[in-house]
Amino acid sequence: EIVLTQSPGTLSLSPGERATLSCRASQSVSSNYLAWYQQRPGQAPRLLIYGASSRATGIPDRFSGSGSGTDFTLTISRLEPEDFAVYYCQQYGSSRWTFGQGTKVEIK
Amino acid sequence: EVQLVQSGAEVRKPGESLKISCKGSGYNFTTYWIAWVRQMPGKGLEWMGIIYPGDSDTRYSLSFQGQVTISADKSISTAYLQWSSLKASDTAMYYCALGATTGYWGQGTRVTVSS
After folding, report:
1. If both were cysteines, with which of A55, B62, B71, B79 could B34 make a disulfide (CB 3.0 to 4.6 Å apart)?
2. Among A30, A49, A24, residue whose Cα is nearest residue A94
3. CA–CA separation, A17 and B73 (whole Å)
4. pLDDT 10s digit of each residue in chain A, 108 long?
5. A49 vs A64: CA distance, rounded Å
6. At A8, phi and psi to the nearest 5?
7. Cis geometry, peptide bond prior to residue A8 (ω within 30 degrees of 0)
8. CB distance from A92 to chain B under 8 Å?
9. Where are the beta strands (DSSP E) in A4-102?
10. Are B105 and B4 in contact (CB under 8 A)?
């Protein structure tokens, strides 16, 4: 199975700042089939990005994804109060999909 | 409107069996993978496995292989996750999700296993 390692574990930032989250895969992700999810407390995960860089329907353009192969990045250009949450990457390019362990973006 | 509606919360004792469900509507149930995801209290998301209801092709995470069974009944557009003998460590929220890129998730089923 492909292991996804997210860093940092926690990111402490202020509203308006830029957030950069990393997701590294133990082997190349086929066709860049890499997604990013946001999860707020008590809610189901929300799809932000798929195919490494395509925004899901209704996702604000302050969220962007980049990367290929084994290294992927989620960038939030200017943090809004509602963006403080936990973010997960997921690969779906192999027969067994996997999630990263998550990055918590907290208010500094 | 696409929806995945999961069955309600369950409380069971260790050693008991359980089957929870995820009913799809608003789309062709047979042509999308359905995934099951576990979230233990205060922890991250864990991918358990997927099923393709069209032909019942099923794949499991190595961590969950042999621990759970995923199935589907396409006649009623419903996918299932079942345990034959629950453990306290199965206490978690379980989500079903439609494919990997649709963004549609069920509301979650909370399973509590306690003596």
Report:
1. B79
2. A30
3. 48
4. 999 999 999 999 999 999 999 999 999 999 999 999 999 999 999 999 999 999 999 999 999 999 999 999 999 999 999 999 999 999 999 999 999 999 999 999
5. 7
6. -75, 175
7. yes
8. yes
9. 4-7, 10-13, 19-25, 34-39, 46-50, 54-55, 63-68, 71-76, 86-91, 98-99
10. yes
Beta bridge partners of B69: B82
Mean pLDDT, consecutive 10-residue stretches, chain B (115 aa), reads 97 98 97 97 97 96 97 97 98 96 95 97
Nearest C-alpha neighbor of B82 from the set B25, B31, B4, B7: B7
Q: Do B46 and A33 touch (CB under 8 A)?
A: no
pLDDT at B29: 96
Alpha-carbon distance of A24 to A6, in angstroms, equals 6
Tell which residue, B114, B95, B105, has the closest CA to residue B39.
B95
- Counting other chains too, the contacts that B51-54 makes at CB distance below 8 Å and 24 or more residues apart are B51/B79, B53/B29, B53/B77, B53/B79, B54/B30
Q: What is the pLDDT of residue A63?
A: 98
Mutation test of the interface with chain B: which of A63, A88, A99, A101, choosing the one with the most B Cβ atoms within 10 A?
A99
Token duo for residue B109: 């089923």
Confidence at residue B105, expressed as pLDDT on a 0 to 100 scale: 97
User: Which of B3, B4, B47 is the mutation pick for testing A, counting most A CBs within 10 A?
Assistant: B47
CB B9 within 8 A of CB B34: no
